[in-house]
TrEMBL record, chain B:
Source taxonomy: Bacteria, Bacillati, Actinomycetota, Actinomycetes, Jiangellales
PANTHER family assigned to the protein according to its UniProt record, in alphabetical order: ARABINOSE-BINDING PROTEIN-RELATED (PTHR43649), BLR3389 PROTEIN (PTHR43649:SF14)
Annotated protein name in UniProt: Extracellular solute-binding protein
One Pfam family named in its UniProt record: SBP_bac_1
Transmembrane segments: none
Organism: Phytoactinopolyspora halotolerans
């Protein structure tokens, strides 16, 4: 389900397929295909496998989710009874929906700025040639390649309150032990910290690529004009990175709203549900609590919220692009 | 239900199954069809369970015993992930009517599995034929395993909270005498003093516990029941419980979790490691951790440990949390006598091999095993035999039982209270609200 | 020529009159470079620390792992934990499952997306524009939010706990179609026309001309899809409960059950599970960086 999110690069890149394409000579298939099949344009065959997969594995769940959300379907079997908007009424009154949605939002608000700033700092520090640069790049990016379970195994061990390395180091400088994963404020901090460590490498590479796309002459010219490094940073580099930052922001928001893996594995949503994201509540209700109908309703509501956010972002983003 | 066996299911097991069926078919063909069906379905027993690690290893030995005794039957055992995923899967298979012949289950989870819809009742005459009768089991387990007079589960064991004692660490404090008997506690103060003594002697935490929801629930339920507290979960009504007793238990544990006597922040792994590596002198944990420590003792020479029943601390009676692994018949659309007999024979074989199971720390409940001299001479298993009788099963509801939402709701509250980020009163109120909400939703089973 | 749609960059703007105030010389350039290097090295050290600690723990004897305060080295080095973990066999099974799943996802995703993208770029037919619009709309669908209905559907289709059930829901990648379409449109049409004159069918042109020309971008996106599929946790976690079918990330989530509580073994398993992709990165660094940079795909 890794439907890759994508930015909309250069809306007018290269050729368009419009008028020229319609002048194509009539396409042909293999010589062995029967005449009836041969009359179907080859484009249809090329598109068919993708479209079939798209219909079955992307559109069908969307439709099924909507239908199921009007029933009190149980995982224990059967479709259940039609309850109309009952599930939606229930979710509006369900405190756990509100609090887990708030947790998702808090996670997004804390992690997004860090994931942008840290990535930017890393990229700015290492985009010029320097000794051991390959090692720095590897160090920054490597965690992104590590399966989430490995990430949480290692961090659970590091963050352990009683035997963990981090508390050991804090102890060494005279600071009291922190209950990293067992106390609400600390647990959210830990989750954000782990997320930054794990995924910042992706944004780092995006920034790095953008920095390398900035023509060296710009810097040379401004050096001749006597600009120092700080002035170059603020007058050339950062303005030229605005688009990349916008892109990262979009990707980051969408990814953060769907957060589940690292939280489920680190805290299971605890302590006292203080880190449980909405997606985990959906999981808890549907799979642990057997209430497929109700959890479909929650997913559907959440699905619509993300869709709206994505549309707004797309709108803003393409407008910005248009004005650039 | 399209293509369950062949079509889209590219599992290795299915590939093997197809291969095996092909081979069997070829064999049958050469033998000129001398009886028996070609495709395994007719003479196979499929068995799903959630036992991994030390339990899994012992279960496999018991399965091997069945295979030896019944070479004509193809026993296919599948181990699935413990907890919610397992019950989800079992429910789904039963809902689809293609369930395995036999499934393992926590007895406290029976209510969540919709007996009568997802589970089929046992035919007690047939069960008696293979040597298993109601009266072979403790009455309270049979009661819990029955719905409307029909038996839906056959208990394999009782497994409960026990007190693990590191003899080397604890003996100098005088808490343990030379015959491995624990000093008697006359009230909570005695218990706290004992923990203080161990801490003074070692400089480490005295008692290891774990902060995951299910572990916290086990601790809580043990001491809450010692105070005589109870919880009733009547669907459609409101939760009934003893608030004063709950507060008292929580306050007792706030004294235990002072960072020296015990740490409220150990997770399950850290709790086991703390005892296994000789840091904590005592541990309150399920009897199933026996193989881990026995293994460590064998390979590294420590910990030198024994296992004792959880002592009565808050009340006169040594009540203790327990659950029971039981065997059930997931619902099948059509049943036949021959298939049932094979399933019952398999269950009987597991019961008869209860000693193997007991070596993993579980307490057998099938009388021919539990009353046997072999079991009674097992060390340290026989020490905590009384746990089966003193045991208190979880409250009953469709959302309760092992690894359930009920465990999670109470466990989260307990963790918040024990780490002092919530007062006992607030915690209980939060839990009460959650329970009432669950009770007001229509049961999905 | 084929130029990748690069990460969006604002077009360089003329810098006004270009006259900047004379710089205050706080640092010599050399000192500045040293400071930057030290900062970069410090961050790298912090970023490597967790992995190093996992490595250090994994070669300790089990009983010394919980020493407190923590020590980087134990009384002796031992490979015992690795031997134990590997002898359990589960890790190898999960590794194979991950490989099967990731390879299948990559192949199916790339081929079906490339076919569709090629048709959208070059092969007109009635309704094509509508289908393309549908595809583009799919880009913003947050698919894994609908995990509950998808699971229901897999149940109905009998695909729960099967390889296909893990693989197929991961292969629909509208964004990839969008990206590849841009690249196919940039392939010089003359080559295709010439091949068509020679009597080559569309399939042949696609495989013999278009695909080879687009090899760099295909390599980049393939590796990227592979990484995503290899590391995907959520969906395989939902759709499998049979340990024999689990992928590495999902299986490891149950590693405690499998190995008892052994921190050295846990960390050994973590190190082993992290290795394959780190090695792949070392070999395919360029393609991976390019995959990230050009496509900007993969919701992390």
């Amino acid at each position: 389900m890794s439907t890759p999110a994508v930015h909309t690069p250069a809306q007018g890149t290269g050729a368009t397929s419009g008028p020229r394409a319609s002048r194509r000579p009539s396409p042909r298939l293999s010589l062995h295909s029967p005449p009836a099949l041969r009359r179907i344009p080859p484009g249809v065959w090329f598109v068919a496998p993708f479209i079939v997969l798209y219909l079955v594995f992307l559109l069908t769940p969307i439709a099924l989710g909507l239908v199921t959300s009007f029933f009190n379907t149980s995982l224990a079997g059967g479709t259940g009874d039609f309850v109309g908007l009952g599930n939606y009424r229930e979710l509006l009154a369900d405190d756990a929906v509100a609090s887990s949605a708030a947790n998702t939002l808090r996670f997004t608000l804390y992690s997004t700025p860090l994931l942008i700033v840290v990535a930017l700092v890393m990229a700015l520090l290492t985009h010029r040639n320097m000794p051991a640069r390959w090692l720095f790049r590897l160090a920054y990016f490597m965690p992104f390649l590590v399966p989430v379970t490995v990430v949480t195994m290692i961090w659970t061990w590091l963050l352990g309150t009683d035997f963990g390395l981090i508390n050991g180091m804090l102890d060494g400088i005279g600071l009291g032990p922190v209950n990293w994963l067992g106390e609400p404020a600390a647990a959210m901090t830990s989750v954000v910290m782990v997320t930054v460590w794990w995924t910042v490498g992706f944004n780092y590479l995006l920034y790095l690529a953008a920095l390398q796309g900035i023509p060296e002459e710009l810097y040379e010219a401004s050096s001749i004009d006597g600009a120092n490094a700080w002035q170059q940073l603020f007058r050339i580099t950062l303005p030229l990175l605005r688009r990349t930052t916008g892109l990262i922001l979009v990707l980051q928001l969408i990814a953060s709203l769907k957060v589940f893996d690292q939280i489920y594995l680190l805290t299971s949503g605890g302590p006292n549900f203080s880190t449980r994201p909405i997606l985990e509540y959906i999981y808890d209700v549907g799979f642990t609590g057997l209430r497929i109908g109700y959890s479909s309703a929650i997913s559907y509501a959440f699905f619509l919220v993300i869709l709206v956010i994505a549309l707004i972002q797309l709108r803003l983003f393409s407008r910005k692009e248009g004005s650039a | 239900m399209p293509h369950h066996h062949v079509g889209g299911s590219l599992t290795r097991r299915n590939v093997l199954r197809i291969g095996a069926a092909g081979a069997a078919g070829a064999a049958a063909a050469t033998l000129g069809g001398c009886g028996g069906t070609v495709f395994g379905a007719a003479d196979q027993v499929r068995y799903w369970n959630l036992f991994s690690g030390g339990d899994g290893e012992r279960m496999q030995r018991m399965e091997a015993a069945y295979r030896t005794a019944h070479p004509e039957t193809n026993l296919e055992a599948v181990t699935l992930t413990w907890g919610a995923p397992y019950y989800t899967k079992l429910a789904m298979a039963a809902a689809g009517g293609r369930a395995p012949e036999v499934g393992a289950l926590h007895l406290t989870r029976l209510a969540s599995m919709a007996p009568g819809r997802l589970l089929d009742p046992f035919d007690e005459d047939l069960l008696a034929d293979v040597g298993v009768r109601r009266q072979d089991f403790p009455e309270h387990l049979v009661e819990r395993a029955s719905v409307g007079g029909e038996l839906y589960a056959v208990p394999l064991d009782v497994h409960g909270l026990v007190l693990y004692v590191n003899r080397e660490v604890v003996r100098p404090t005088g808490l343990l005498d030379s015959a491995d008997r624990l000093a008697e506690f006359r009230g909570p103060a005695d218990f706290l003093n004992a923990l203080d003594e161990i801490h003074t002697a070692t400089g480490e935490i005295a008692l290891a516990t774990a902060n995951d929801p299910s572990s916290l629930w086990r601790l809580f339920w043990t001491f809450y029941r010692q105070l005589g507290g109870d919880i009733q979960l009547p669907v459609g009504e409101r939760v009934q419980y003893d608030r004063d007793a709950m507060v008292e238990v929580m306050e007792f544990f706030l004294e235990v979790f002072d960072g020296n006597r015990a740490s409220a922040t150990l997770d399950y792994d850290a709790g086991v490691a703390a005892f296994q590596n000789g840091i904590a002198g005592l541990q309150l944990n399920g009897s199933w951790e026996l193989p881990s420590y026995a293994d460590a003792l064998e390979t590294t020479g420590s910990p030198d440990f024994t296992m004792l029943p959880v002592p009565a601390v808050l009340g006169p009676e040594p009540a203790v949390w327990v659950d029971s692994h039981a065997l059930v018949l997931p619902h099948q659309d059509s049943r036949d006598d021959a298939g049932d007999r094979r399933a019952y024979e398999f269950i009987a074989t597991l019961l008869e091999n209860g000693l193997v199971w007991a070596s993993g720390g579980h307490i057998p409940v099938y009388e021919p095993v539990s009353a046997s001299d072999e079991y009674r001479s097992l060390e340290p298993q026989s020490n905590y035999r009384s746990t089966a009788a003193d045991g208190e099963l979880d409250p009953e509801a469709w959302f309760a039982g092992a690894g359930s939402d009920f465990h999670n709701q109470m466990g989260q509250v307990l963790n918040a209270v024990f780490t002092r980020s919530m007062s006992p009163d607030d915690g209980i109120s939060q839990w009460e609200r959650a329970m009432n909400q669950l009770l007001s939703t229509p049961s999905p089973v | 020529m084929m130029s990748a749609p690069t990460v969006p960059l604002d077009t360089p703007r003329p810098t006004g009159d270009g006259r900047l105030p004379s710089p205050p010389r706080l640092f010599t350039p050399r000192l500045g470079r040293v400071c930057i290097w030290v900062a970069a090295a410090l961050i790298a050290f912090v970023w490597l620390l967790p992995m190093l600690w996992a490595l250090a723990t994994s070669v300790k004897p089990e009983a010394e792992t919980t020493a407190y305060p923590p020590e980087w080295t134990a009384s002796r080095f031992t490979g015992e934990a690795y031997r134990q973990v590997l002898s359990q066999g589960d890790l190898v099974v999960w590794f194979l499952n991950s490989t099967i799943v990731a390879v299948a996802v990559t192949v199916i995703t790339v081929i079906t997306s490339a076919w569709a993208a090629y048709a959208f770029a070059r092969l007109p037919f009635r309704g094509r524009n509508a289908l393309y619009a549908l595809t583009i709309a799919g880009i913003i669908v947050p698919a894994n939010v609908l995990v509950v209905p998808l699971f229901q559907q897999m149940r109905i289709m009998g695909m729960v706990d099967t390889y296909w059930g893990i693989i197929l829901p991961q292969v629909v990648a509208p964004a990839m179609v969008f990206i590849l379409k841009k690249f196919f449109e940039a392939v010089p049409r003359e080559l295709e026309d010439a091949a068509q004159m020679d009597g080559a069918g569309r399939g042949r042109i696609f495989w013999m001309i278009v695909m080879p020309l687009c090899r760099p971008i295909l390599a980049a996106v393939s590796i990227f899809v592979f990484i995503g599929a290899w590391n995907n946790f959520f969906w395989p976690f939902i759709v499998t409960s049979d340990p024999d079918l689990m992928t590495l990330p999902v299986g490891l989530a149950n590693v405690q059950n499998a190995f008892g509580v052994r921190y050295a073994q846990l960390m050994a398993a973590a190190v082993l599970a992290a290795l394959p992709l780190v090695l792949i990165f070392l070999f395919f660094q360029r393609q991976i960086v390019r995959g990230v940079a050009t496509a900007g795909l993969g919701g992390n």
